[in-house]
């Protein structure tokens, strides 16, 4: 996986990336079951504003479930999740507010196929934020420029490559002006030659100070921009460290085994 991308080619400058003392997201004793199946077991995690967290681990370890709980695409049954000062409870109004602050990018881009790229980007700002169409379009064009595909604005998703569609998905999220971005294996459905163009956009976002939680097995990206790498297995956070230590000195046998399989 790692050999498709040379970390040094990506030019992230970690010294530019500031981490605040303020907490963006906290999970405290979070537990979740799917029926009988205990999918998240006492998960504890504090993410500060401006941090970039990379989450890795074997398939089925609960990575997607954990980040989906942060924007309430999934509900946890025990413990506490606080996003930008708001605890996630059954209060629907609060959940709406939190969702506006948390952008999410999925493995399969989830663009609306019957809407143009520009319409995909303006839909939520117009309907959720009640933004005038003209303003929404102006903002969308700014973000499409930032992900380097403004010329695709009037095409449909099916006319774009996978890498371009994923960059649209990122731009679409940014149009809602989120405080936190969640990524769930954003490059794992892409052909290798398109991985880099998406990672470069994510690195630019990291450099802009965005708080990011990224489920990815792109270890070059992790080394380059993450301040912490988390390893999950069987619903638990097994290990968490800054990238150099994480890769050089994995503490747990399961982490070593996992790294030996993907690196
Ligand atoms: P990962 O993202 O690490 O691959 P997931 O969070 O997707 O893992 O899934 C963790 C476990 O929970 C897997 O065993 C998966 O089969 C199970 N699971 C995920 N979603 C559901 C669901 N909606 N209902 C029942 N089991 C689920
Ligand atoms: Mg997953």
Automatic annotation (TrEMBL):
GO MF term set: ABC-type amino acid transporter activity; ATP binding; ATP hydrolysis activity
Coiled coil: none
This protein's record includes keyword ATP-binding: yes
TM segment ranges: none
Pfam families registered for this protein in UniProt: ABC_tran (PF00005)
Domain ABC transporter: 25-259
SUPFAM superfamilies xrefs: P-loop containing nucleoside triphosphate hydrolases
InterPro entries in the record: AAA+_ATPase, ABC_ATPase_HisP-typ, ABC_transporter-like_ATP-bd, ABC_transporter-like_CS, MetN_ABC_transporter-like, P-loop_NTPase
Keyword Transport: yes
Annotated family: Belongs to the ABC transporter superfamily.
PANTHER family assigned to the protein according to its UniProt record, in alphabetical order: AMINO ACID IMPORT ATP-BINDING PROTEIN, PHOSPHONATES IMPORT ATP-BINDING PROTEIN PHNC
Protein name: Amino acid ABC transporter ATP-binding protein
Protein species of origin: Methyloraptor flagellatus
């Amino acid at each position: 996986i790692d050999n498709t991308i040379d970390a040094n080619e990506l030019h992230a400058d970690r010294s530019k990336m500031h981490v605040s003392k303020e907490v963006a997201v906290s999970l405290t004793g979070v537990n979740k079951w799917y029926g009988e199946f205990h999918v998240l077991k006492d998960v504890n995690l504090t993410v500060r504003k401006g941090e970039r967290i990379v989450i890795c681990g074997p398939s089925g370890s609960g990575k997607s479930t954990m980040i989906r709980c942060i924007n309430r695409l999934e509900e946890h049954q025990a413990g506490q999740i606080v996003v930008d000062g708001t605890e996630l409870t059954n209060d629907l109004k609060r959940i709406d507010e939190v969702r506006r602050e948390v952008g999410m990018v999925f493995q399969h881009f989830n663009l609306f196929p019957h809407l143009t790229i520009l319409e995909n980007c303006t839909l939520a700002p117009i309907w959720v934020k009640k933004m005038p169409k003209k303003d929404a379009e102006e903002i969308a064009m700014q973000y499409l420029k930032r992900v380097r595909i403004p010329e695709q604005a009037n095409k449909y998703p099916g006319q774009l490559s996978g890498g371009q569609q994923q960059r649209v998905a990122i731009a679409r999220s940014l149009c809602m002006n989120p405080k936190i971005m969640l990524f769930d294996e954003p490059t794992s459905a892409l052909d290798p030659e398109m991985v880099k163009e998406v990672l470069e956009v994510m690195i630019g976002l990291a450099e802009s100070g965005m708080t990011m939680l990224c489920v990815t097995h792109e270890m070059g990206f992790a080394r380059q921009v993450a301040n912490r790498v988390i390893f999950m297995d069987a619903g638990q956070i097994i290990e968490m460290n800054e990238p150099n230590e994480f890769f050089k000195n994995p503490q747990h046998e399961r982490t070593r085994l996992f790294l030996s399989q993907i690196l």
